Amino acid sequence: MIRLPRPLFLALKLAAIAGLIVVLLLLPHVLSEFRLSQFTYVGIYFIALLGLNILSGYSGQISLGHGAFMGIGAYVTAVLTLGHKGLVLFGHHPPGWLPIGDGMRPALTIPIAFVVTGIVGFLFGMPALRLAGVSLALATFAMAVSLPQVAKKFENVTGGGGGLSLPLPETPFGLDVSTPHWLYYEAWGCAAVLFVAAWLLVRARVGRAWRAIRDGELAATASGVSPALYKTLAFGVSSAFAGVAGSLLAIQVAYVNPDTFPLSLSILLLASVVVGGLGSLSGVVVGALMLEFLPIYAQHPPFVGQSFSKQAPGIAFGVVLILIMFAVPAGAAGLLRRIVRPLTKPVPTVSD
Amino acid sequence: MAQFLQQVASGLASGAIYASLALALVLIYRATDVINFAQGEMATFMTYLAWSLMNHGLSYWPAFALTLLIAFAGGVAVERVVIRPVERKPEIVIVIVTIGLLISINAITGWIWGADVKAFDSPFPNSTHDIGGVTISTQDVGTFGVCLLTVLLLWAFFRFTTVGLALRASAINPHASRLLAVRVSWMLALGWGLASVLGAVAGMMAAPTVFLDPSMMLVILIYAFAAAVLGGIDSPVGAVIGGLSLGVVINLLSAYVNFVGSELRLPTALAILLVVLIIRPQGLLGHRVVRRV
Amino acid sequence: MKKSLLVGMAVALATAVTASTALGATRTSSSAGATPGVTSTSITIGGTFPLTGPASLYAPIPRGMETYFNFINARKGPDGKKGVYGRKINWKYYDDAYNPAQTVQLTNQLILQDNVFAIVGSLGTEHNQAIRPILNQRKIPQIFISTGASFWGLQYKDFPWTMGWQPDYIAEGIAYGRWIVANAPTAKIAVLYQNDDYGKDYLRGLKIGLARKTSLIVSEQSYEITDTSYASQISKQKASGADTWVLLTTPTPTVRAIATGKALNWKPNQIVINSVSAIDTVMAAAVARAGADYVAGAVSSGYLKNPTNPAYAKDPWVRQYRQLVAKYGPTGLDANNGNTYYGVAKAYDIVKVLYLAGKNPTRQSLMNATLKMNWTNPYALKGIKIKTGKIDHFPISQMRLARWNGSWTEFGPLIKGR
To answer: How many CB pairs under 8 A join A and B?
Structure first.
C-alpha cells in the first residue's frame, strides 16, 4: 500500500469526524421514535465507555464496577429530581438535613451527578489502587455486587427495592422540540462535551502521565510521576463520566431501582470497551453500538433451538471476548489499525 | 452466650467454604499472578456436573472423586487453551480473558441445567449435635472437616513432593527453575488444575445448603476475594484464616449490630477488603510485594 | 489517523442501521388510523419476561402462554373461525433479564416498533412499575401482569390502563394470618421475609390478618438475595421459642431456609407462600434435604390446580393441558413445571377477554372488557370466579389453603381475598 501524505490524512480524519457529526444531526429527522431512542441509549453508553476507556485504555486499570457508578449517578438524578416533596409524595421519608432541595429539572442534575460520582470514585480509588495490578478489579467487582445492597439499606432516600419513579421526561425550558428529540440531543450534547474533554485530557500532561504509568510504573515513578495520584485521578474522572451516563439513563428510563444496575451491566461495559478497542476513543463508538444493539438482536438469534437460544448470546459473547484478547487485543479499533497499518504511524497501545 | 457461640459456629461453617474458594484464588495468584474471576463459575459448573453424575446413578463418593478428576483436567485444559496464549500479556488482558470465561461458563451452565431449584446430596447424615446449647449439624462439621483436610493435603503436597516443590519454585523464580529443568509452563497448568479441584470441593460442600443455582458461587466468590485479601493474597494459610474469620465476623456483625443487619452483610465484606488494603495491603500473613516492572 | 477509517466505519454502520430501520418504521406506521396491532387477520400482543438472569426460573410462563395461543390459532372457535374472531394471536415476548431499564426499552420496542395492541403478562413488580406511567400516558393496556403487588388493583384511578391478574400478596398474607388466629391462637410466630416490596407486602398482609393478635409474632427476620447463608437469622428465630414459621420467601430461599432450619434442629410448623407451592420441584428439593417428616403438614395456598398433584391426574382440563403442551408447546417446555401451567391458565383469560372486547376491538374496548369479566377458568380451582367490576380491579381474588403431605391438598372453604 502507499503511504498517504500527512496533510491529506488529517483532512480525511476531519472529514470523517464531520461526517459523524452530520449523521448524528441527521438521525433525528429520518428515524422513527423508537430507533431514535435507541440512538439516545447509544449516546449514553458512549459516555460510560468513554470514561471506562480512559481508565482501562490509558491508565491500564480495570473496573468491573462501572455499572455501579452509573447507578450512583442515576440515584443522584432521581433523588434531586424528586427532592423532598417528591420523595414524601411517594411515601418515603428522607431525613430533613439532606440537601436535596424540593425538586429540580432533570437536565440540571447532570453536572451534579458528574461531580458527586467523581468524588465517590476518587475516594474509592484511593484504597483500591494501593496494590499493584488486580486490586482495583477486585474491589470494583465487589462494589458492583454491593451497591444494590447499599441502595436498599437507605430506602428512606432511595426507595429501597421498589425504587424511584421519575416524572416522564419532557422537553424543558419551553424549547420547541419533541421529547424524544430533546432526550437525543441532551445525551449526545453531553457526549460531545465529554468527548472533547477526554480528547484534551489524554493529550495533556495528565494523559502522558497515565500512559507512562500504563507502560511501566517504575519508569514513570523514576521520571517524577506519582502513580497512586494519577491512577486515582483516572478512576475519579472515569467514574464521573459513568455518573453522567447513569444520570442520563435515569432521565430516559424514568425509573431507578437496585436491579437497574446489576453486575452483568458492569461486565458488559468492560467487554464493550475491549471489543471497541482499549486506548482508542473512537473505538468507543463501536462499543456503544454493540452494547445497545447486541442484547436486542440477540433476542431471536437465527439457526439455534429454543432452549439454547436464550443462553447463546452469553456463550458467544464470552468466547468472542477471549478470542479478541488472543488475536486483536486492541479491539475493533486495533483491527482497523492493523488493516490500514501502512497508512498510519503506530501508536503504542496496551498490547504493544 | 449460647446464642453468641451459635453465631460463631454458623459463621465458621460459611467461613470454611469461603476459605476453600479463597485458597483456590491464592493458588492461582501465586502460580500465575492472576486473579481468576471465573473461579466461582468453574466451581458451579463442576458442582452441577457432580449432580448429573449422581443423577445418573453414581453414589456420592465415586461421583465426588470423579468430579475432582474432571475438575483437575478441566482446570489444566483451561490454562493450556485460554490462559497460555496470553501468559506474557499485560495483566489487564489476562483479567479480561477470565471475565470472558466467567460469562461463557455461566451461560453454558444455564443452558445445560436451567434455573430450576435442585437439591444436592450431602455425604453426611442429616443429624445434629447439641453442645452446651449450641446446635451443630453433622453437615457443617463435615464441611469443615473436608475443607481442613483439603488444606492439609495441599500443604503436604507442596512440602513433601517433588512436584509440589517444583511448583513452588516456578512460582517464586521461573527463570532459575527453568535452569533446573523444571517445566515451568506445565507447573502453571498444574496450579490451575489444583485450584479448579479446590473450587469444586467448595462448590460441592456449599451446595447441600445453598442448593444448585447457576449463580450460586457468585457472592461466595466475593467473600472469597475479601478473605484472600484479608489473609494476604499470596498466603495459603492466610486464605484459610481469612475465610474463617470473615465468616465469623460478618455473622456477628449482622447479628449484633443493628445497622449492619442483613442488608449490609455484603457491603461489610467490601468495607473490610478496602480497610485491609489501606491499613495492611499485604494482609494478615502475606508478604509485602516489591513492585514488578 | 487510524481514527478516520474507524469513524467512517461507525458512520457506515449507523447509516446502514438507520436506513434499514427507517424503512421499517414507515412501513409499520402506514397502517395508522386503525387500532394499533389489530388487522383483519391478526392481533399482536406482547410482554417482557426474565428468560435469563436471576429470575429465569419464571421463563416457562411466556412459553406456556405461547402454547395456549398456538392452540387458539389452530382450533376453530365458537364462530367457526380460527384465532379470536378470525384473527390469529401474534405473541411477542422479550427477555429483560429482570432489569427494569431493559423492561422499559423492550416495552418501547413492543409499543413503538412492533406496534402491539396491548402489553400482556409482563413479569415483575418493579418492572411493571417502571413501564406503568408511559403506558397509561399513551393509553395502552397493561393487563394481567405477572405480579401480585396489591397496588395494580388499588391505584386504578391514577392508572386506569393497568390491571393485575392473580390474588395479591397482601390478600394472601391476610389469609395466613386469619388461619393462624382461627386454628392456632396461641402460636408463637417467627417470620422470615425477603427484604423487598414483595416480602414486605406479604408481611403487611399477615399482620392485617392477625389483627389484634399481631403480638403472636415473636421474631421478624429478613434476608437478602445476596445472602449465602441464613443460619444467623434462623438461629435467632429458633432462640425466640417460636413454634410456627411463616416463610415469606421466594422458591430457592425457601428451600435454603428449610434446610437451615433442619440443620439447626428446629422444627416449627411451616407456612410457605403460593409461589413456592405452585412449583412442585421446590418442595421436592426441600424434602430431599430436610426429609419428608420435616415439611409434612406445611400450609400454603393456591388458586390454580396443580398439574403434578395426583388428585388432578384425571381432571379433564389438566389432561387437556398436558396434550396442549405436547402438541403446541415450544420444544423442551416442561408440562410438570407450575410456571408453564400458570402461563396457560393466564392465556385462557386473555383469550376470553379478547373475545369480550368485541369483533372490532379497540384499546378502550379491551379495557372496558377487563371490567366486565365474570367467568370460571377451568385451570383454576373449582369455584373460583374470574370477576371484576367498576370498583373491583382484582380479576382473581379467591384462593384456598392447602396442606403438604407429599403433595398439596386443598382444605377449607374458598377464601375471599378482596
So the answer is: 158
Q: B258-261, long-range: CB within 8 Å, 24+ apart, which pairs?
A: B261/A153, B261/C222
What was the pLDDT predicted at C30? 39
Q: What's C48-80 look like in SS3?
A: EECCCCCCHHHCHHHHHHHHHHHHHHHCECCCC
Q: How many residues are recorded in chain B?
A: 293
Would you call B90 and A350 a contact, using CB atoms and an 8 Å cutoff? yes
Q: Do C229 and B128 touch (CB under 8 A)?
A: no
DSSP C299: E
Does C53 reach chain A within 8 Å, measured CB to CB? yes
Chain B closest-CA separation from residue A130 CA (Å): 7
| pLDDT tens track for C85-105 | 999 999 999 999 899 999 999
Give the pLDDT confidence of B3-26 residue by residue, as tens digits. 899 999 989 999 999 999 999 898
A157-211 pLDDT, tens digit per residue, is 998 888 999 988 888 888 888 899 999 999 999 999 999 998 898 888 888 888 8
- The CA distance from B121 to the nearest CA of chain A, in Å, is 27
Q: What is the mean pLDDT of residues A102-111?
A: 90
CB contacts, 8 Å: B265 with chain C: 224, 226-227
- pLDDT band for position C10 (50/70/90)? very low
Give me the helix-helix angle, B91-113 and A263-276, nearest 10°: 130
Q: Name the one residue in this structure whose C-alpha cell is 484511593.
A: A126
Least CB–CB distance from B92: residue in A56, A138, A317: A56
Neighbours of B277 (CB within 10 A): 23
Choose the closest CB to B264 out of A149, A270, A308: A149
pLDDT surpasses 70 at A336? no
Question: Is residue A78 pLDDT above 60, yes or no?
Answer: yes
Residue A308 has pLDDT above 60, yes or no: no
**CA–CA distance from A264 to each of A49, A269, B270, C206, C314 (Å)?**
15, 9, 18, 35, 45
Burial C21-45 (b: 16+ CB within 10 A, else e): bbeebeeeeeeeeebbbbeeebbbb
The yes-or-no verdict on residue A313 having pLDDT over 80 is no
- C-alpha cell belonging to residue C267: 422444627
CA A26, A29, A35, A38 torsion: positive or negative? positive
Distance, in Å, from the CA atom of A132 to the CA atom of A189, rounded to the nearest integer, reads 37
**Would you say C98 and C124 are in contact if contact means Cβ atoms under 8 Å apart?**
yes
Query: What is the CA B286 to chain-centroid distance, rounded?
Result: 17
Cell triple for B59: 453414589
Q: Do A162 and C134 touch (CB under 8 A)?
A: no
- CB atoms near residue B248 (< 10 Å): 19
Residues in chain B within 8 Å Cβ distance of C239 = 2-3, 6
Cα(A221)–Cα(A230) distance, integer angstroms: 11
How many other β-carbons are positioned within 10 Å of the β-carbon of residue A17? 17
Nearest in space to B263 (alpha carbons), one of C193, C129, A262, C126: C193
Is the pTM here over 0.95, yes or no?
no
From B148's Cα to the closest Cα of chain C, the distance in A is: 20
Contact B10 C290 (CB under 8 A): no
As a whole number of angstroms, the distance between CA B87 and CA B97 comes to 11
Beta bridge partner(s), residue C219: C190
Spatial contact of B64 and B204, defined as CB atoms under 8 Å apart? yes
Query: Does the pLDDT at position C25 exceed 50?
Result: no
Nearest CA of chain C to the CA of A31: how many Å?
A: 5
